[in-house]
Structures are given as structure tokens and as C-alpha cells.
Write a sequence for this structure.
């Protein structure tokens, strides 16, 4: 199930009403766990076993670390958690990628005779939705317990709900146990829920996804399917609209997730902060997929030494982090190169080029960041490196998306509209409205949003990560 | 509060529904626009699935009718994957334009039963747009008549899907987006729908991009190598020997068919039903005709009666004709239509 399916409002309404109708916290948490597993199982119930398995392993690892008397035992428990979580992720997401890459390399080296020739042998396993997200959540739990930043929970229900909480289960934001488990220990009160703000945020998220991203996809898909047929201007338009699409798709999902959680009384972390207004790539990563970038910062970059051991080590650490960040998005070389592309500019910004950037006026810095990000998205969206190259370098074809210009303009207007709708001024005005007027405004807005959705809609881009 | 919210939602949806056009997808918008342009000169409309969209060439049909002394002009409004319910909706669009010169509609006989949507295609505009109250009722009625589902939950699921689509249609879902984006037709249409100029020039015929299907040829060659009959040959043999079960019409929605016939006749147009040369066993069509449920049937399903239409070299794939097959079928259809119209004229004269 996902947030833009027609059955979701009915599902959520039932969960919401039951949740607040129940008295005990334990009953509410049980309900949320059942609802979460139902939400995930509606996609493919088989993979629920993986979530349960991951939860049980981390429950045992957390308690093992907490109860261990020696550092060696604590390390062993942590190693178990890391190996199991990363092993499952590796098997489902990366095994075929490494097998295929090894084969391609073998073919180039003429080693087919050693059984490395292209052919069968890949696992061809279906990728469980959201596996990268919940794996990083469970890892954060074990690592925080190991570091002594978090007390291991003895409540299996709490840990299971932390891992499986349906609003953020399949596409984030990536929640830290240190932020979420304490919320499960304190009773939730409906009086503390900002219902209007949550309803408005959900609608904005829905609008970004179903109206902005999915409508932009119509142009993007046409251009990326056969870039050589389009003029250079049309390709640039396609690439720019992909930036709009991926932002609307992912930040829209995050907004809806945060809103759903808020309506149930839980707070999820902010995931986007106007990323295309960034003045550098460093700034971009403070605004884009914040829960992922801070995860990599806290659990990989800083343990590797961060920026404390000289320029060379900092550059190495950045490259490692962004290579893995690219790989986290998918088992494809285009993602790896995309990660390295961002890593490269982060290194440049930390060297002399960064000082040069600071001299430039703010609009020029924004333009620089936007161009780097846009070129990065071409790599990210292309099916393979040669497609990306052909989109960027081949002479333009004759086909234009001129007919789509008006449509693109509409998408840009919609994109700007969502920025305005999410702005504080409108929010403040809505807060001042009487309940009856808010209900009328909300009904009007919902009808308008529904009429603007793209019926031939796309699945969430980040579901496959 | 909830009542006010719903009132605002329904009022604005109704306003959008009134102001914005219906989002016709899958090539239907193009074909309907072309038909609207030519409607004043069209005598015969053909409505059905891809079997007819690919298989009936209006130019050939008209030339053959003219050779029989009937200078009529036809338009093929069939669309790939268009089931009876969607075709019934398109028929209403045709009738709404007024009869004009229109004398005859040729309707493919198909089951009224809704089927589970293809997840890969997602929710498409064309799956929603025909879900008005009366047709959703027909869909639910047809489901209730079938009832023979291996899993009873499937009946509930299908009914839920139909009701969901009715709600989506009533809420004007996607109408403004469709209207605003109408100028842009991405060329990545999964159904290779015709361009507006093609739809006008070919009067709705939807030829395959290539004359012969490599896939079918390969399947046939592989089966021959293995010494087994191919899927096409297996289905052909089954079509030659239909079983009692194949003839069963108990799950067919006769009421919907009757309502359709009455609507067509009410504007002075003659409904003629058509069963194209298909290897999928549809023996229930003959039973339906024998029982008198169909006013007139042009039946091309029998491989024994029309062997040339089932010849391997005239097929594009298992269930569709290629260009050669379409030309032959259009000529045979013209002859059959001429005979049927003559019968009706004699009948009228006798009355």
C-alpha cells in the first residue's frame, strides 16, 4: 500500500479512529504494529518475515550488548547485528550487481573460461520495498546501544514498532531509535496533536507527489526514453523537470509520512529544507534527505575520522561516504558515479575552490549548486552510463517538447504553488480560521488537488531504494 | 465539520466535472476527436477491442460495400483493450452526436464482466472515465451474475475496484491535469495509439507498425522443431471443437445487452453484433444468438467456416490478424454486412 492509493485514506481513518479510541498505550502500540504490518503486507506479505527477523536480531543484539561484561562480547553482538542487517541488504539488493559487475570485468579480461562468463547464476530476487530504510534504522539502534548513547530496550513491542512504524517504513525519513523510542515510552495525548497542521502537511505532500512529480514524469519519461530524438533545449527541459519530479516525489512522501505520524501523536524528523535554494553542494546535503545525510555523517564519516585528520584524509572520507551514499540508492553504476560526483564537489568546496565560492554573490552560488545537482540528476535518472552520456553529449535530434512547454509551465506553477502552500504565512492564516471555515477550505483544496493528479501515475521513486 | 468538508469537496468536484473535459486515454481521445470531425459523413461505426481496431480497415470495407452497390462510409472506433463496458460508454458518445447519416453500429460481442486491472499499467484515465452511475451498476450486476470465482474474495475485490473508480470519477480525479496537459502527447504510449492525422486518414484503423509478427513466427518455428503444436494451433483446435462449458451463457449480462440495443434503436440506428475471427473459444456467442438475445450477428469465429482467416500467414499474433488478414476480413465483413442489411431491408419492406 502507499499514500496515494485510493484505499489508503480508508485504512488510515480506521487506524486513526481506533488508535485514539483505545485507552491503554500498550493496546495502541499493538494496534499500530498490526496496522504497520498490514500496510507493508499489502505489498508483499512474504517480506514481512524479513522485518520481523531484523527486529528480533536487533532486539537480541541490543540486549546482548547491554548485558555483556566484556568489550569483546559487546563487539561480537554489534558485529552480529551489522553482519545480519548488511548481509540481508547485500543479498537482496547488491548480490546481482556484484555478480554482473564481476562477470563484465571477467569478460574484459578474457576470463570466461574460468566460469565467469556472462550467463545465468544471478539470484534475481525481488527487492523488498523499503529495505534500505529500515536496515539503516535498525543499524542505528545497535550502534547507539553499543556506543552507550541509548539504553537497550527490553520491550520487544517498542522495538518492533520503531522498525515497522508504517508512516516511515518504506521510504523514510530514517528515524533514529534515540528519537523514537522515548516517544513510545510516554503516553500520547490527542490534545497535543496539531490536527490542522498535519492535515495541511499531508495535502501538500500529496500535491507534491501526485500533482507535481507524476505530471512532470510525463515529460521526463518521454525525453529520457529516447534522448537522441530531442533537441538540446528539450533535453535540458527534461532534466530540469526530473529535478522537480524527484523532489516532489520524495519530499512529498516525507511530508505525508510526517503528517500521518503526527496525527497518531508521533514526531518524525524533517527530511527536506528547500534543497534547490542551496548555495553550495555542502549546503545542498544539509537540505536534501537530511535523515540520510546525517546518518552517514554520524555513523560513517565521523567514525572514519571526519575532517580532523588533514585534507587528504577528509577527501578520502568524503569519497567513501558518497560512494556508499550512491550505492545506497541502488545497485547501479549510475548511482555510484552520482555519489562520487557529489563527493568530488564537496572535496573541491573544502579546498581553495570553496573560498572562491564564498566571494560570489548568493544568486551565483545558488546557480552553481543547482547546475551541479541537475547534472547529477541526469546520471541518477539515466538507465546506464551510455544513456546519460548520449543525453549530455550527442547532437540534438529534431523532436521538441514545444507542445509540452505550456504543460511544463503548469508544472513549474504547481511546484511554486506547493512552496507557497508550505510557507508560514498561509499556515498562520489557516490557523486563524474558525473550524467550519477550515473544513470548507480543506474540502475545496482536496477537490482541486484530486483534479490535478496524474492518473497514469508513477510509483514512488524512493520505494526501490 | 465533516459535513462541511464533504459538501465543499463534492461541490468543487462537481464544478470541475462540469467545466473540464472527460480524460479519455489510450488513443480514444484521438479517435473520438477524429470521429467528431467526420461524423456528418459516416454511415457505419465499428466498436470493439484490438481484434477489430487492428482487423477492420474502413477503406477496404467501404470499397467492398460500394462494389455490392452500397456506397457507405465507415469509421473504426475500436480501441486496444476496450471491453464491453468501455465500448458501451463510447457508443453513448457516438449516439450523443446525433444519428446524422449514421445507419449502423457494428458492436463486438464481448463479456460485460470487469476484470482485475493490470498492476503494471497503474491506474489509467481510461479505467476511470466510463464509471458513471449506470455503467458502474452494469459492472456490479455483471459481477454478481458471474459469481463463479475460485476465490470469493475476488468478487469483493472487483466490486471494490468498480466502486472506487466510480468515486474517483465523481470526484473529477485527474480532470484538470488532463485538460491542462492535453497539448502534450508523449510518444511513449504503451498502446502505440494513432496520431490525430493518422486517425483521420485511416478513419480509426490501427495497423501494426510491421506487417508480420516475428514473435509468432518464432513460436511457430520452435514448436515445429520440438514436434509439438504451437499455442496458436492448440487454441485453433479448441475453437474447432467447443465444449458444453464453452457454450454456457448463464453468466452473460443479457439485461445490459438489451438496454444497449434499445438505446441504439431509439435514435434510429441499427445495432449489428460482430464476432471477429478469434481463436479464443467463445462458443457462448453462438448460443446467445440461437437464444435470440442478439438482434443480428455477423459471426467469423468458426475456423471451419472461415479457414482463410485462420491461416497462419494472415495472423499477427495468436488472436490478431496482420495486414493481409485485416484486408481479407474487411472484405468478408463488407459482404456479410451487405447481406445483413439486405435482409433487414426486405424485412422492413415485408412489414
Amino acid at each position: 500500500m502507499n499514500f496515494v492509493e485510493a484505499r489508503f485514506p480508508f485504512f488510515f481513518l480506521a487506524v486513526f479512529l481506533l488508535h485514539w479510541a483505545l485507552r491503554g498505550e500498550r493496546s495502541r502500540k499493538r494496534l499500530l504494529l498490526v496496522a504497520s504490518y498490514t500496510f507493508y503486507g499489502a505489498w508483499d506479505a512474504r517480506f514481512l518475515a524479513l522485518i520481523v527477523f531484523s527486529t528480533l536480531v536487533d532486539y537480541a543484539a541490543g540486549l546482548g550488548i547491554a548485558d555483556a561484561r566484556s568489550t569483546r562480547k559487546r563487539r561480537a553482538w554489534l558485529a552480529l547485528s551489522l553482519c545480519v542487517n548488511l548481509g540481508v541488504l547485500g543479498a537482496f539488493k547488491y548480490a546481482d550487481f556484484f555478480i554482473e559487475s564481476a562477470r563484465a570485468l571477467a569478460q574484459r579480461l578474457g576470463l570466461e573460461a574460468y566460469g565467469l562468463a556472462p550467463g545465468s547464476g544471478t539470484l534475481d530476487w525481488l527487492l523488498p520495498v523499503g529495505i534500505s530504510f529500515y536496515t539503516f534504522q535498525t543499524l542505528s539502534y545497535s550502534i547507539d546501544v553499543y556506543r552507550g548513547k541509548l539504553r537497550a530496550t527490553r520491550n520487544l513491542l517498542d522495538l518492533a514498532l520503531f522498525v515497522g512504524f508504517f508512516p516511515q517504513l518504506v521510504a523514510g525519513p530514517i528515524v533514529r531509535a534515540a528519537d523514537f523510542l522515548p516517544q513510545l515510552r510516554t503516553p500520547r495525548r490527542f490534545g497535543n496533536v496539531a490536527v490542522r497542521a498535519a492535515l495541511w502537511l499531508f495535502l501538500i505532500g500529496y500535491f507534491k507527489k501526485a500533482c507535481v512529480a507524476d505530471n512532470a514524469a510525463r515529460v521526463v519519461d518521454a525525453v529520457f526514453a529516447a534522448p537522441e530524438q530531442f533537441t538540446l533545449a528539450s533535453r535540458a527541459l527534461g532534466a530540469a523537470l526530473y529535478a522537480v519530479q524527484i523532489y516532489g516525489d520524495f519530499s512529498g512522501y516525507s511530508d505525508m509520512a510526517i503528517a500521518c505520524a503526527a496525527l497518531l501523536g508521533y514526531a518524525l524528523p524533517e527530511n527536506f529544507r528547500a534543497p534547490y535554494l542551496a548555495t553550495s553542494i555542502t549546503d545542498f546535503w544539509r537540505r536534501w534527505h537530511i535523515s540520510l545525510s546525517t546518518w552517514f555523517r554520524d555513523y560513517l564519516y565521523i567514525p572514519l575520522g571526519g575532517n580532523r585528520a588533514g585534507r587528504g584524509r577528509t577527501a578520502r572520507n568524503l569519497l567513501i561516504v558518497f560512494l556508499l551514499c550512491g550505492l545506497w540508492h541502488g545497485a547501479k553504476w549510475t548511482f555510484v558515479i552520482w555519489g562520487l560526483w557529489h563527493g568530488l564537489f564537496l572535496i573541491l568546496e573544502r579546498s581553495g575552490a570553496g573560498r572562491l565560492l564564498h566571494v560570489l554573490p548568493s544568486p551565483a552560488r545558488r546557480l552553481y549548486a543547482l547546475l551541479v545537482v541537475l547534472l547529477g540528476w541526469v546520471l541518477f535518472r539515466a538507465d546506464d552510463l551510455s544513456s546519460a552520456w548520449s543525453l549530455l553529449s550527442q547532437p540534438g535530434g529534431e523532436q521538441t517538447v514545444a507542445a509540452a512547454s505550456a504543460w511544463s509551465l503548469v508544472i513549474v506553477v504547481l511546484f511554486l504553488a506547493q512552496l507557497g502552500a508550505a510557507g508560514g504565512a498561509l499556515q498562520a492564516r489557516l490557523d486563524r480560521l474558525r473550524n467550519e471555515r477550515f473544513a470548507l477550505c480543506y474540502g475545496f483544496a482536496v477537490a482541486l488537488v484530486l483534479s490535478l493528479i496524474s492518473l497514469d501515475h508513477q510509483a514512488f521513486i524512493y520505494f526501490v531504494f | 465539520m465533516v459535513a462541511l468538508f464533504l459538501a465543499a469537496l463534492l461541490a468543487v468536484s462537481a464544478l470541475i466535472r462540469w467545466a473540464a473535459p472527460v480524460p479519455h486515454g489510450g488513443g480514444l481521445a484521438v479517435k473520438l476527436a477524429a470521429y467528431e470531425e467526420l461524423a456528418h459523413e459516416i454511415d457505419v461505426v465499428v466498436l470493439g477491442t484490438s481484434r477489430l481496431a487492428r482487423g477492420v480497415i474502413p477503406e477496404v470495407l467501404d470499397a467492398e460495400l460500394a462494389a455490392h452497390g452500397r456506397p457507405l462510409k465507415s469509421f473504426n472506433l475500436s480501441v486496444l483493450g476496450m471491453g464491453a463496458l468501455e465500448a458501451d460508454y463510447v457508443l453513448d458518445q457516438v449516439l450523443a452526436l446525433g444519428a446524422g447519416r449514421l445507419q449502423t453500429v457494428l458492436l463486438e460481442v464481448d463479456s460485460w464482466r470487469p476484470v482485475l486491472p493490470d498492476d503494471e499499467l497503474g491506474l489509467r484515465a481510461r479505467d476511470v472515465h466510463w464509471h458513471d452511475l449506470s455503467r458502474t451498476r452494469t459492472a456490479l450486476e455483471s459481477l454478481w451474475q458471474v459469481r463463479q470465482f475460485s476465490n470469493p474474495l475476488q468478487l469483493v475485490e472487483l466490486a471494490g475496484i468498480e466502486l472506487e473508480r466510480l468515486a474517483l470519477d465523481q470526484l473529477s480525479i485527474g480532470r484538470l491535469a488532463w485538460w491542462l496537459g492535453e497539448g502534450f502527447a508523449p510518444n511513449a504510449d504503451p498502446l502505440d495509439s494513432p496520431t490525430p492525422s493518422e486517425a483521420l486518414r485511416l478513419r480509426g484503423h490501427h495497423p501494426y507498425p510491421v506487417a508480420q509478427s516475428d514473435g509468432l513466427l518464432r513460436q511457430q518455428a520452435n514448436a515445429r522443431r520440438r514436434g509439438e503444436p504451437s499455442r496458436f494451433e492448440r487454441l485453433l483446435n479448441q475453437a474447432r471443437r467447443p465444449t458444453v462449458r464453452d457454450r454456457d451463457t448463464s453468466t452473460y449480462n443479457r439485461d445490459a445487452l438489451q438496454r444497449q440495443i434499445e438505446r441504439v434503436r431509439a435514435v434510429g440506428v441499427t445495432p449489428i453484433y460482430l464476432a471477429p475471427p478469434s481463436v479464443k473459444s467463445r462458443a457462448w456467442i453462438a448460443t446467445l444468438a440461437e437464444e435470440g438475445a442478439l438482434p443480428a450477428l455477423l459471426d467469423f469465429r468458426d475456423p471451419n467456416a472461415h479457414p482463410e482467416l485462420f491461416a497462419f500467414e494472415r495472423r499477427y499474433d495468436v488472436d490478431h490478424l496482420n495486414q493481409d488478414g485485416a484486408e481479407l476480413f474487411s472484405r468478408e465483413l463488407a459482404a456479410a454486412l451487405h447481406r445483413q442489411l439486405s435482409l433487414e431491408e426486405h424485412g422492413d419492406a415485408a412489414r
Observations:
- Residues 195-402 of chain A form one domain.
- Chain A has two domains: 26-182, 195-402.
- The radius of gyration of chain A is 23 Å.
